[in-house]
Amino acid sequence: MKRASLPLLLLPLLLAAAPALAQQEAQYSQYMNNNYLLNPGATGAEDYIDVKFSYRTQWVGLEGAPRTYYASVNSSLGKWLTTDKRTRHDLRRPFHAIGGYVYRDETGPISRTSAYVSYAYNVVLTPKIRAALGMSVGVQQFAVDGSKLQFFDPTTVAPSDASRVLDGSVGLWVYSPSVFVGVSSTQLLANKLDFSYGLNGLEAGAGNSLRRHYYFTGGVRLPLTDDWSVVPSVLVKAVSPAPLSADINAKLKYQDLLWAGVSYRLNDAAVAMVGFNYEQLSVGYSYDTGTSRLTGYHGGSHEILVGLRLKKKAQVVCTNRFW
Q1: Can you tell me the distance from the alpha carbon of 171 to that of 156, in angstroms, rounded to the nearest whole number?
Q2: How many Cα atoms occupy the beta-carbon half-sphere of 148 within 13 Å?
Q3: How many CB atoms lie within 10 A of CB 72?
Q4: DSSP letter at 8?
Q5: Per residue in 156-204, pLDDT tens?
Q6: Phi and psi of 80, rounded to 5°?
Q7: What's the maximum distance between 2 C-alpha atoms anywhere in the chain?
Q8: How many CB atoms are closer than 10 A to CB 179?
Q9: Which residue in 132, 146, 151, 189 is deepest, having the highest Cβ count within 10 Å?
Q10: Distance separating alpha carbons of residues 69 and 28, to the nearest angstrom
Q11: C-alpha distances in angstroms, 147 versus 161, 223, 260?
Q12: 258-302 confidence digits (pLDDT tens)
């Protein structure tokens, strides 16, 4: 594997952080295990309190490469979803759901720390199909750590600073026990950051802004036998002026115990995934091997996801609807 020098590395990292030049939000390979991250409409879609923790290290071996951490929790309100004594009227009742998540994304000297709360209103379209409209609001902090910047002139001292902005997202989520479709938009407010790097260091009011991101995702569960099923799905991401991005996925699942999957991110990476569920615990692991021109400079990307399916009542927790 080739090794990139720090000056060569900093240029693409800073460009990747510039709002006008690239996708700003963190990359996830196991997004389909937690659609709530990209679509607030998926808040409370499962019949349990859904808790997730994840760590992703991208482009291993490349100095200053991205690292991402997050924790999320979401649930429907009330207990009617998880009781066996549901009436026909109960099955047609709309319900409310709430959630929240925090994450931190680090790329060399640049970091982003965010916290959000979300709400979704869920209605019944047919006895098996529901639709939910959700929204989330929160705060993002973008920061530059000047101590992590290195220059050819060792006497050069780079400044550090941070900018905080309000943020929000909206999403529509339509689902049944075997199909899901979602559309969402994040960084909806497109707020401007109050600093950027210039020739003379940090410049206030330089006009960098958050770009709206648009997501479309869909998938279907296809039963092969009583125990085996396959779930093809797709995620399309759009943010101007970056080119359209798409993830094409397929997952083979054995009951609610074991699963394995593959994914292809156009012009970027091929992904292998595997995981298991044991009672209320779920664990997933994925490995990305790059297909872009940066591939020769790193050893791929690793992502691990740990989930907890917490009961609302003393009863069996239902299986995952989709994954």
Answers
A1: 46
A2: 18
A3: 21
A4: H
A5: 777 788 889 999 999 999 999 899 999 999 999 988 877 655 545 545 4
A6: -65, -25
A7: 74
A8: 15
A9: 132
A10: 10
A11: 11, 54, 42
A12: 999 999 999 889 999 999 999 899 999 999 998 887 777 788 999
E strands in 81-225: 95-107, 110-124, 130-144, 161-175, 179-186, 195-198, 201-204, 213-220, 222-223
Residue whose token pair is 């239902």: 318
The candidate with the shortest Cα–Cα distance to 248, out of 260, 259, 237, 232, is: 232
Give pairs for 243-250: CB < 8 Å, separation 24+.
243/267, 245/23, 247/31, 249/32, 249/219
The structure tokens listed for 233 are: 């799905």
Please choose, from the candidates 97, 101, 100, the residue with its C-alpha nearest in 3D space to the C-alpha of residue 132: 97
Name the phi and psi angles at 107, rounded to 5: -135, 100
CA dist 76 and 313 (Å) reads 13
Q: Which fold has domain 6-310?
A: Porin (2.40.160)
pLDDT confidence of residue 4 = 42
* pTM of model > 0.85: no
With residues binned 3-state (H G I as helix, E B as strand, rest as coil), the percentages for the chain, rounded to 5, are 10, 50, 40
Please report which helix (H) or strand (E) contains residue 249, including its range: strand 245-254
Region 135-143: mean pLDDT is 95
pLDDT at 58 > cutoff 50: yes
